[in-house]
Amino acid sequence: MDDSARRHMDDSARRRLLGGLSEAQTAAVVAPERALCIVAGAGSGKTRVLTRRLARRVLEGDATAEHALVVTFTRKAAGELRQRLWQLGVPSGCRVGTIHAAAYGELRRVWADRGQRPPAVVGDSRRLLAEVPGAPGDPRVLGAVAAELAWARAMQLDPAVDPSAWRAAGRQLPVPAAQLASLAAGYQAVKRRRQVIDLDDLLEEAAAAVEADPALAAAVRWRVRHLFVDEFQDVNRAQWRLLRAWLGPQPDLCVVGDPRQAIYGWNGADPSLLGRLPTLVPGLRVLQLHHNFRSTPQVLAAAEAALGDDDGPSPGTTGRLLPPVPTRADGPSPQLRGFPDDRAEAEAVARWLRRAHRPGRRWRQLAVLARTNARLTPVAQALDEVGIPYRVGGHRPGAEAAALDAALRQLAATAPLRPLRAALADLPAPTVELLRSPLARLADELAEEEPDPTIGSFLSWFTATVGETDAAEGEHLADAVTLATFHRAKGLEWEAVALVGLEGDLVPMPRPTAEGRAEERRLLYVACTRAGEELWCSWARSRRHGDRVLPVEPSPLLARLRAAAAVAPATAPTEAADHLAELRRRLAAAG
Questions:
Q1: Which residues pair with 289 in a beta bridge?
Q2: Beta strand pairing status for 542-545 and 548-551?
Q3: Which of 42, 50, 75, 416 could bridge 529 with an S-S bond, Cβ 3.0-4.6 Å?
């Protein structure tokens, strides 16, 4: 092939990569800087920009796929990124996965070089924490203790040495700080005795290994020459320590994040890292994507009203972040409805879902979101009664993952070093049939690292890869309404969304610090921006708690939503529309 033909092919590929992009998206894809921060608002096409930037660099010879690492936080997100890169022509050698999986892969090389047997990785710290003397017997308190210890690890704090860390952060503790410090020390001792590590250990040990060994650091940075990080506003300090260790003195880094969607501070995420990134990575350029391609102007107005004046940490920009600019046409005004009790609210939501499920729109394009799962229970009961299909959850371990984990742990209890393929042959036939598809996918992902894994090594890899926020493969294909919490809905989108239970005891949830209260407003903003065309907001004046009926007050944030809805076109539902929806339901039920 001559040079002119090659140039023509390159130009053609470049046009395909840039096709359909906005001006701001194109600027981010073609930016020549090696260190780039893309501030991408909700619905701005951040995944498209991230994948096309990597594809552009690889196809133009500016980066090598085998030396690129794309880090995200869930297997579902990793699968989507991997699929898009493949469609763009990026060779399969590009690594895409969760940060825990990437850390585990690097540690496996370290252990192999040292001749060490890899320790087992535990995903649920509560099992080991229960063995610590003085651990709470109540499972709920034990879970809260585990969450606080994980928060301290994420913040790079040592609670066994300095129990004042929780007080300084305004944390509401399930047990006294001194007891937490004792439990933290005891938990570490149990892990050493059992010769296991947890997901936090993966990050800390991978970072420490690079920091302590210049030769290892050079080898890791040779393998990871181009680092791409998704959802950077969710990165915690422990994760940043590892990412920074991989980068080296001349970072080739591209991150995508949105300070308005920083909602995991309670869990250890440090959104200030996004704001401080230009000082942490000298020479880093910041670009903004502020066009919203998902939501109507009316939905965006409600979301911005919920957010108020809080834009989150400003990532090195001058002045305020650019406000989102909607690209969709006008839609209906958000509906704000109050009801006498949670039962009436749930029945009204069911009727609204019937109307929203109009011709050409599937059930899977509808969702009901709440601050907590408890607020979704009456809705689920109402949908059961009228026959509307639904599924509960967003990012959660699916049935396949749970069945695989249970089956392998049963095998590992007796023969952890037995080859995985041989052990699977002994599984009962129904179990093998259930797991055939996910096992094939997982085996393909692991094959490059370990061609013939043992049960124990596969379990550790599986735990590190799946983590706590995995989503069931194929779950999104079910034609059913999604019921999920605000947090679980992050990263997802639907055409019509109902936000229920908008009451003062939960929205916002009481938080002791100003940043915590700002995070609550951002959480409502995230929930609103899951909607494309229709947004329903409702609350009840009383709720049932067991045998008691307690009065509740509407959320103080509703005043902001009501003000935004007042200037939008009025398209409130009518009794005729309700009646028509009921007739459609009866006709559908009659076959």
A1: 40
A2: antiparallel
A3: 42
CA gap 277, 307 in Å, rounded: 23
- Using alpha carbons, list the distances in angstroms from residue 13 to 16, 89, 94, 205: 5, 9, 19, 41
Cβ atoms of 269 and 483 closer than 8 Å: no
Structure tokens at 346: 């749930």
Helix/strand/coil for 228: strand
In this structure, are strands 481-485 and 366-370 parallel, antiparallel, or unpaired? Answer: parallel
Residue 62, CA distances (Å) to 53, 57, 225, 254, 581 in order: 11, 5, 11, 14, 56
Q: Decide if 339 contacts 539 (C-beta within 8 A).
A: yes
Q: Which backbone phi and psi does 270 adopt, to 5 degrees? A: -120, 90
Residue 268's H or E segment, with its range, is: none
Write down how long the chain is.
Answer: 591
HSE of 480, CA atoms in CB hemisphere, 13 A = 18
The two tokens of residue 55 are 């594809």
Structure tokens at 127: 């099992």
Task: List, for residues 153-175, the tens digit of each pLDDT value.
Answer: 999 987 666 667 777 777 888 99
- Other Cβ atoms less than 10 A from the Cβ of 234: the count is 25
| Count of other CB atoms within 10 angstroms of residue 4 | 8
> First CA to last CA across the chain, in angstroms?
62
Determine the Cα–Cα distance for residues 358 and 502; give it in Å rounded to an integer.
Answer: 26
At 510 the pLDDT is 87
Q: Please, what's the b/e burial string for 406-436 (b: 16 or more CB within 10 A of its CB; e: otherwise)? A: ebbeebbeeebeeebeebbeebeeeeeebbe
Alpha-carbon distance values, 253 to 23, 34, 38, 46, 93 (Å): 22, 6, 11, 16, 18
449 is written with which tokens?
A: 């690292």
Over residues 518-569, the pLDDT tens digits come to: 999 999 999 999 999 999 999 999 998 878 889 999 999 999 999 888 765 5
Cα(43)–Cα(528) distance, rounded to whole angstroms?
A: 12
Specify the DSSP class assigned to residue 91: -
Contacts of 293 (CB under 8 A, 6+ apart): 43, 44, 45, 327, 328
- What CA–CA distance (Å, rounded) separates 371 from 521? 12
Helix axes 139-154, 199-212, angle to 10 degrees: 20
Q: What are phi and psi of 254, to 5 degrees?
A: -135, 120
Contacts of 20 (CB under 8 A, 6+ apart): none
Strand, helix or coil for residue 221: helix
Q: How far apart are CA 404 and CA 427, in angstroms?
A: 11
DSSP secondary structure letter of residue 531: E
Q: Measured between alpha carbons, how far is 565 from 305 in angstroms, rounded to an integer? A: 10
